[in-house]
Specification:
about 45% helix, Isocitrate_lyase, 20 helices, alpha/beta, 3-stranded mixed beta sheet, 16 strands
Length: about 550
């Protein structure tokens, strides 16, 4: 809860805070009498978090509590959506509070894919760690700036209601509003932030991790790909690194958290081994069975003799035999086909044994039993292992789940002759029993995955990339077509008004009322305010007021 406060970790109720500030002002023998104690209390309540580290410490504790709640009951899984701009993250959390009354269990996800595609000075880039690494902490800071502004805006509306209740002498309403102020829930929530493969060596990872944590990140997600060969998890050509190389970067992240005093910081280790058939290096091994030897055991090798060797061949020994790993013209080494799941399991166990808190297994399809099969094996060694899972837009969810139902029906001996498995995406199947059952499986995927496959956190990496494109396409089609201005009014503004979308009063959302409050604090009756009778925002009903929404 976010009560009126002077420190992000210590809360004080609104009236006590006013009294404390008034006592401070009184100590300055009249020189501070132009300062209003209640105005200061309001500004403090509206600015609970004074730094990104305040946010990181606060949200890390929330995330740890949520992880413990999930361990007690997998129905307590958490969710997030990837947001590529502060405004998108802000509107998401405002919507969650409006519709569900609480932000509990809902996070933000920062997608490296969307940073590359939308936030790089180079312009749109593929997800290959080519964007500026500084753009990642910059987006974290931006997201939290907008979430803090959402707090300030909503509290400002409550303060306005409080003043109106006092002016009307309505003590019951005044008490009700005071309770809302004292028990105000912040829009600031945990963020899981993508640090890719660390953007360099372990030192580079540490330096970037510090910047991300200082910006507010309580959870860092790092993957086991080669930093300079990094690919999107759903693209071909992924190359992994030996475990010791990866674990050095995991430790670098932990050192960054501990140096900055974020002792509850969360590290999410992602394995791309399921779809990665290549490695850049042969792992160093001291003795048979160590982690380097286990990594090398997956290399695709052929037995050779000394006479078979070319001048630049690399060889290893396996069970007393001389083996030559398959080496590609790219100078990469190839893993044996069909070893992806075994490598994923080893990656996950090793990461958890060396400081990781959560796992991320990047898969090629959303299939609960495939994920569960790997998690079952991991939990034989680490019983409370749990995942962050990417409900990726790179999956064709409709086709995947229709094919899963088709296969289940066929295995059960049910007649599937009316369906063409390869064409199940077709609209002609939309009203069929198979499509309805598939849609129900999509609807329950997160709940089923949390219960069966150890998925603590479900996220969608780049949904707001797609929603921005879809909504813009629909608006452009209508506005530049026959509907013209009606295309905007009917499909956007009218819907905003009727659905109570707060930013229909966009001046208020952008902070004009907050600015007016400050002008009044600073200049009193001389303040030139923007929210007077001639402000055109007055044409809209006050659907942006949280107390009005609650009453509705």
């Amino acid at each position: 809860m976010s009560k009126a406060t002077t420190d992000a970790g210590k809360t004080m109720n609104y009236n006590d805070n006013i009294a404390s500030i008034q006592n401070l002002i009184s100590g300055y023998k009249g020189t501070w009498d132009g300062i209003n104690a209640e105005s200061v209390a309001r500004m403090r309540a509206q600015n609970r978090f004074h730094s990104g580290l305040d946010i990181a410490r606060y949200t890390a504790k929330i995330m740890r509590q949520d992880m413990a709640a999930y361990d007690a009951d997998p129905a307590n899984y958490t969710q997030s959506l990837g947001c590529w701009h502060g405004f998108i993250g802000q509107q998401k959390m405002i919507s969650i509070k409006k519709h569900f009354g609480s932000t509990k269990g809902r996070y933000l996800y920062l997608s490296g894919w969307m940073v590359a595609a939308l936030r790089s000075d180079f312009g749109p880039l593929p997800d290959q760690s080519m964007h500026e690494k500084t753009s990642v902490p910059a987006l974290i800071e931006e997201l939290y700036t907008f979430l803090k502004q959402a707090d300030a805006r909503e509290l400002g509306l409550l303060f306005k209601d409080l003043d109106e209740a006092r002016a009307a002498g309505d003590e019951a309403r005044e008490k009700d509003i005071m309770d809302k102020i004292d028990n105000f829930e912040t829009h600031v929530v945990p963020i899981i932030a993508d640090i890719d493969a660390g953007f360099g060596n372990a030192e580079a990872t540490y330096l970037l991790a510090k910047k991300m944590i200082e910006a507010g990140a309580c959870a860092l997600q790092i993957e086991n790909q080669v930093s300079d060969e990094k690919q999107c998890g759903h693209q071909d050509g992924k190359v992994t690194v030996p475990h010791e190389d990866f674990l050095a970067k995991v430790r670098a992240c932990r050192y960054a958290f501990l140096e900055l005093g974020v002792e509850d910081g969360v590290i999410v280790t992602r394995t791309d081994s399921l779809g990665a058939g290549l490695t850049k290096q042969i792992a160093f091994s001291k003795e048979p069975g160590d982690i380097g030897d286990q990594y090398n055991s997956f290399l695709d090798c052929e037995e050779v003799s000394a006479a078979d060797l070319a001048p630049n061949d690399v060889v290893i020994t396996r069970d007393g035999k001389l083996m030559r790993p398959k080496r590609l013209p790219s100078n990469l080494f190839q893993f044996k086909p069909g070893t992806g799941e075994d490598r994923c399991v080893l990656d996950c166990i090793t990461s958890l044994q060396h400081g990781a808190d959560l796992l991320w297994i990047e898969t090629e399809k959303p299939h609960v039993e495939q994920i569960a099969g790997m998690v079952d094996r991991i939990r034989e060694v680490i019983p409370n292992a749990k995942l962050v899972y990417n409900n990726s837009p790179s999956f064709n969810w409709t086709l995947n789940f229709r094919q899963q139902i088709f296969d289940a029906w066929e295995a059960a001996g049910k007649d599937v002759s009316a369906y063409d498995r390869a064409k199940l995406m077709s609209v002609e199947y939309d009203d069929t029993d198979l499509a309805a059952e598939a849609d129900e499986k999509i609807r329950t995927f997160q709940k089923d995955g949390a219960k069966r496959a150890g998925i603590f956190h479900h996220l969608i990496t780049l949904p707001t990339y797609h929603t921005a494109a879809l909504s813009t396409d629909n608006l452009a089609k209508r506005y530049f077509g026959e509907e013209a201005m009606l295309g905007y009014v009917k499909q956007v503004q009218r819907q905003e008004i009727r659905q109570g979308i707060a930013c229909v009063k966009h001046q208020n959302m952008a902070g004009s009322d907050i600015g007016d409050d400050h002008k009044e604090y600073f200049a009193g009756e001389a303040a030139l305010k923007a929210s007077g009778k001639d402000n055109t925002m007055n044409q809209f009903e006050d659907t942006s007021n949280p107390s009005v929404q609650a009453a509705e």
